[in-house]
Amino acid sequence: MKFTLNVWRQNGPQDKGRMETYQVDQVSDDMSFLEMIDVLNEQLIHQNIDPVVFDHDCREGICGMCSMFINGEAHGPGRGVTTCQLHMREFSDGDTITIEPFRAKAFPIIKDLMVDRSAFDRIIQAGGFVSVNTSGNLPDANATRIEKSHADAAFDAATCIGCGACVATCKNASAMLFTSAKVSQFALLPQGQVEASERVLHMVNQMDLEGFGNCTNTGACEVECPKGISIENIARMNREYLSVSLTTK
Amino acid sequence: MSSLNAHIPEGPLADKWTHHKAKIPLVSPANKRRLDVIVVGTGLAGSAAAASLAELGYNVKAFCFQDSPRRAHSIAAQGGINAAKNYQNDGDSTFRLFYDTIKGGDYRSREANVHRLAEVSASIIDQCVAQGVPFARDYGGLLDNRSFGGVQVSRTFYAKGQTGQQLLLGAYSALSRQVAKGRVQMFARHEMVELVVVDGKARGIIARDLVSGELERHSAHAVLLCTGGYGNVFYLSTNAMGSNVTAAWKAHRKGAYMANPCFTQIHPTCIPVSGHFQSKLTLMSESLRNDGRIWVPKKKEDAEAIRSGKKKPTDLNEEDRDYYLERRYPAFGNLVPRDVASRAAKERCDAGFGINKTGEAVYLDFASAIERYGKEDAHVQGIHHPTPEKIRALGEAIVESKYGNLFQMYEKITAQNPYKTPMMIYPAVHYTMGGIWVDYNLMTTVPGLFALGEANFSDHGANRLGASALMQGLADGYFVAPYTVGTYLADDIQTGKISTDSPEFAEAEKTARDRMEGFLNSNGNTPVEVFHRELGKIMWDQCGMARSETGLKKAITDIRALRERFYKEVKVPGKMHEMNPELDKAGRVADFMELGELMCLDALSREESCGGHFREEHQSEEGEAVRRDDDFAYVAAWEFADHDPGKAKLHKEDLVFENVKLITRSYK
Contact, B474 vs B124, CB < 8 A? Predict the structure, then answer.
């Protein structure tokens, strides 16, 4: 297969950036999208052009490191996949493919397709944990029973991989889906309830400080989320936030 | 040959850890604030250790090369985590978990360490539940368990097929809490490129900021390497792209011994290689072997016809198929341990019976299971004389409920429907049991340098059991290192801040800089990736599932030649002081090329077959592994010498078995 690639190139955060066009051939339909970029990069090295910088690691859809906005969609066409799980057979021979970084004010570009998502880490640091120290003397794991439906719902929320597709997709660059998934996981479990009020206030506050936008219920985040995180989590977070802000000083 | 002292405490096996903890020196809270600890790597072992040490009051600096500590490759673990809770009342106990692990490791691990692992396993589950890790639960709201290979109890705790993710996010949240408190300074997108040793003690690291490209000096009173395994020496593996041996190898070059480096786990059920540019391999969970039957064609002409596309697997009648595991191992059939299943697949493919275009794949077929489940379900539903189509439909629904997500994953990657046609699978490198040698306190041969998790060698012997990697990472990080690192630091309370202005720091920084400049100034024309692929092929062919004296000797010659070519011909674009992933890769591949030689040396010297290490010269007439306990019941710990990985000196730690009897594994 052969492709024409329009790739965003940007040397650093201060650089203006531009689109460059490259041709790749020798692509097979078995390749993942990132393997196709590997082919491009080997070719660029031979041509004395700096290879395209992009984030990636596990290449099996779980680490959340790969990003890329492909033909206007986070992680490209196809539902429930990250870029590393996207295969070239999803495209037609001769296609032109446009590849951009995830764009958001809170995700500054480091280089080319690589962005800085440390804002997500700071949201977790603001309260995305249960305050319990390591100890060999905690209550037995089965001391508290948890209703299966709650445990399952907490698990579903906890499967967020923190890739930022929701932010890149949202017209407001909102991080509500990401933040609410963590808030929900703990709100649904007895272990997380003790500090639930503090948590939601701090995490939402941090989200605003980082420069993420607000949610206007478009729902695009849920559609593009590779892990199918539900916007019900946003509703749950809003509920938590509202009740806490009405009842505390 | 110096003797290696593992510092195993005296006393009966079951009391060693308790007594040891009771006797070790403590550091007062005021003194902890004056002590710095560096943690490299933020997977299960690293995140857990960094969080726990910071909670105790030490000043922690944590490093990871990814953009966030949450990305470490522990996140990809699927199946579960073992713990001797005995919630199922099925006869599990600390001793049984200990025994299964020692036996599963083919009697090449240290009794005292493995027993401690089994002892703390229950606390891990308590800890994780308290952190809000959403484990699977039953309808009564209690924790659910499942069973894994090589054991007869259900002791595996899980969170669907994403247990590693949930445990890592739990440890990451504990770490994040300490970052927020200022007790941990987090350095993401930083890679350790040198270890700094001052007066014989590990006193810091040189790290490269991967965004700016600057080299930084970081000092500490102790350094913990939690940097995972080195499976990527084979180029293709189930490891993440960035997983590397660099930190461990730098430590090795500075005096840390590497133990049993040739012990590699090759997982039998992975999606086969499809082409030259393939960058990694994907695992299909071990659980599939409960219902899938593994086969290749009986006749070579059928295999050839399938390879060339003239025949389909479904064209072959039952009598033309060779269910070789059921044939060779009637007692265990398709459920033999990982190492045995992997070797049997290789044997058939080498003999010319492989079934994909590369000739390196076998079938994992669910047709029998679909039919069996379909008939059962028809019976349950009271359908008399169901049509074959009805049986198929019912059976497929049952199989989907059990393995749906795996089948979907397979279909996404291969574009083939595994309900209609058998899956194609082949073994792939998955885990490395070998690693940095550590004593009972997880301290390496360099005082003040510790190794935790997959990075050390200690608990899995020559073969790791399923669901034990997560257990070991968290045991080391949460429950072992916080005690044992303190023991070491108790002598350091008067030392004061370690200066980074010493000649040792300057020299380590210079070494790192010269090396990187060397790569950038090389006038070659070949990308790093090409050398990595070549190295992987040598390792896979000669130091993979089967090893021989001739093959290993050839591999050593080939690797040395490749290394020489690498330094002459490699082309690394870009500059030092910028984000430059090709430069990062060059450093990692250079270290893999040295490690590869040591692995072959280790495999050559271990003249027996045990666990994942199979020497062709040491097999029975039926082709089974022959272990040689009289001569090889030891840990091979290699000391770097003469500036040459091939001149490493062997030190032996004899393994003493006082609580288990050494027997031969048989699955016939």
Answer: yes
